[in-house]
């Protein structure tokens, strides 16, 4: 499932390519036909992300709310405006801008090209999700042919965005959107920073629930998924089974501030880079292989990078949890 950094990056792509423009909206698959008819021909006025949910506002005070879930993805085609904070138009969303180096392909076949300096237009095709590979084609027909089960297609005269497989895709009123927002925990990129920290600290310290569960609860904090959960707890040296209400306040604040920093890195680079101080070949290796960018995630049975203890894997609320029993006490 895309974690918070990816959803913010996708939303920024919409802000650059769709906000302020009249949008043709359709549902090739048919499952969103009624909603598409309501939005078709309206101007998009705002693009916003909170955690794993994105909200696209249209004139007339209507919103398109999208939650990609486990299988959702956006495919963009046409003239795609990119800049250093957004994935290259020739790589899948979630790939780093790689600091001006040659393109790096990771072990899943994913890549992005450097996008340093002024924004530029690229004629191409990019898939934006956490689980799918990027596509590139310099000779796309226009409009692009519909491929697969496209729930919603959003088009301007120059750019097309196809949505596939989302958990949620709905037209909502401002009141309905506000109800969703009221259920979500704080997002470091939305709202007042100090207030967000206090909300997080209060939500964790009043609960007897394991911190490993609390970090995945979108009502406690928005945007954290399996990868960030495992890595943040390791970086803080916290046993994931520790109830939130017994964790010292300074450690809880440290968790929040680490999330602020990791989310910033994720949005800027497109990678869930959680290891510190990597440079040169080590940096390139981490960009090329997911297994080299994390402390514990996806390392079950391997020695801890710090103490050599075997990394454990278990299930916590039907999600995989990776942790070091020696470093996290």
Characterization of this structure:
The protein is of the alpha+beta class and 329 residues long. The chain folds into two domains: 4-180, N-terminal domain of MutM-like DNA repair proteins (Alpha-Beta Barrel), CATH 3.20.190; 185-323, Helicase, Ruva Protein, domain 3. Helix content is 27%, strand content 22%. It contains eight helices and 13 strands. The strands form four sheets. The protein has a five-stranded antiparallel β-sheet with strand order 1-9-10-5-8. The longest helix has 21 residues, at 249-269. Residues 295-329 form the FPG-type domain. Residues 2-100 form the Formamidopyrimidine-DNA glycosylase catalytic domain. Belongs to the FPG family. Keywords: DNA damage, DNA repair, DNA-binding, Glycosidase, Hydrolase, Lyase, Metal-binding, Multifunctional enzyme, Zinc, Zinc-finger. Its cofactor is Zn(2+).
| Name of the CATH superfamily of the largest domain | MutM-like, N-terminal
Q: Domain count, please report it.
A: 2
CATH top level of the largest domain?
Answer: Alpha Beta
Low-pLDDT residue spans: 84-122, 130-138
The strands making up the biggest β-sheet line up spatially as 1-9-10-5-8
Number of strands: 13
Based on the structure given, which CATH architecture of the largest domain is correct? Alpha-Beta Barrel
- Element pattern in H and E: HEHEEEEEEEEEEHHHHHHEE
β-strand percent reads: 15-25%
Radius of gyration: 20 Å
Shape: globular
The helix content, as a percent range, equals 25-40%
Structural class: alpha+beta
Domain FPG-type: 295-329
GO molecular function, one term: damaged DNA binding
Family: Belongs to the FPG family.
Keywords: DNA damage, DNA repair, DNA-binding, Glycosidase, Hydrolase, Lyase, Metal-binding, Multifunctional enzyme, Zinc, Zinc-finger
